[in-house]
Amino acid sequence: MDGQESWPEIEKASKEKRRELVLQGAVIDEKISSNGGLCSAIYSLKLLNYLEIIQCPSLTEIHGDIQNLTTLTSLILCRNKLSSIPKTIGNLKSLKVLDISVNNLNALPEEITQLSDLNTLNVSCNNIESLPDGLCHCTKLSTINISKNDITRFPDDFYRLDLLSTVIASENAIEELSGDVLKLSALKVLDLSNNKLSDIPYELSDCSKLKEINFKGNKLKDKRLEKMVNGCQTKSILDYLRAGGRGKGKGSKQADGDGDKADGGRNAEKTQTKKQRKQKKKTEEDEVDELNRLVVKVLHVSDNPGAFTVKVANELKDVRPYLVCCVVRGMNFRSGNALKRFLVAQTKLHDDLCGKRTTATIATHDMQLLKGPLMYDARTPPMLKIVPLGRKEMTAVELMRQLQLEAEDQRKQRKRQNVSGLHKYLQLLDGKELYPCLVDAEDHVISFPPITNSERTKIRKTTKELFLEVTSSTSLQICKDVMDALIVKMAELNKFTFEHREEAGSEGESDSPPVPASDGTTSGELVIQQVRTVDPDGNLKVVYPSKTDLCTDVGDLNVIW
Description:
Blueprint: H1 8-15, E1 20-24, H2 25-35, E2 50-54, E3 74-76, E4 97-99, E5 120-122, E6 143-145, E7 166-168, E8 189-191, E9 212-214, H3 223-229, H4 234-243, H5 258-289, E10 294-299, E11 309-312, E12 322-329, H6 338-351, E13 361-366, E14 374-379, E15 385-386, E16 394-395, H7 396-414, E17 435-439, E18 445-448, E19 452-453, E20 465-472, H8 476-505, E21 526-534, E22 540-544, E23 557-560
Helix pairs in contact: 6-8
């Protein structure tokens, strides 16, 4: 590798002390083919946080010197022809996201289990036969995608991953899901479709946060359950498992004999009495705390014939396919710094839950400035025109070029190694032939995720009704989780504004009189209007919020359906 010629892309990243580098497509693939692999200089870019090398069929291996990139937090090596991953990957102690999907891998190095900060692992679409033992050492692992492999079982310590919320394991050869699945207390999404399962453990119903399951394509012994997993919603399936199915699971314990029945009856009576005492205590506590509760009222689509619908173009499938939306009424931005607090909270969600916009992006609009119906579309950069926040109208090509130049100036003038604002998200669209955008009825682009919103629909202090959107290239559930968190935060902020507005009012604040919410109350409660997203033929894709949404851990959140 020492005789390889230098690559301009790597030289530029080194010279500018960049924190991110994206290499992809035919031009890079030709360089890899000509040089017999990656340019060795790439392993000297020790400031990199984000490295993405994708769609290069000539890339069959990564050198062990990858261990030099100790500041990497995201390593994306998907859609290549990698046959192995070096053991030295275990030295990347800061790594949070590892995507090695769509390669030719037969196994994973055990050293992956040394990545204690790893949050997301995607090894889908390979030929992997087993997961390494010791995954429990990846204590921060939240999302794992092992779909389309040859895996037959989960390691025993897999069920000790306390923060694991999403498991995508479809199209494998998994024969058993252990009852220890109940130990996955954070589990929200479980996809085991098209495997070799014969049973589903009733303990799955004890996963209190579980919102989405998929067991389609498994030949189950319980034929009624098999029929349910192919046609029923998650709640119905979990209720069936909780009841014990047909003489199985929890329910079967009641049929062990007359003596047991008698004991069971007495125990049931004691349990019932205990439950009643707990319920009474809970009721009393609820009455005491009632004034402190965050109230969110949900309006159904069926109750509002004029409700917004968003149509999703088919072309987004390979661009940024996931979207959830809703309308929020009752927010008061007029008092003091209420609007500023909201924008700060949105930025924090982007940095934390949205992974700095790498997993999801939030956009907010003044509902009164929208003209529906809306279209979630994919357009070529020259054809996408938008009035970005704080700028004049321009094409996506012009905007991206301008942002790139601003990023260059930031690095030079401030002598910084990284950039701020919109500039740190530019690499998320590198190499994309189509850009996602939300378009109104007059063909105005009002959102260009994950980069910016439009000045046309910008929220202001006078905004009373908001249209919220969350988009993702990762999963629908992530969109829902982010929207849930956003609404909870809005409820908290609105309550804070309501309470402190009254206090400030006594000191002469100009907008001190409580401003009624859209339903006429002055309690600070929010009203959420459901929004449907549909495909080009009008078939429903998702409605948000549904009954399985807004099931948060916030004890003082009261959702009224």
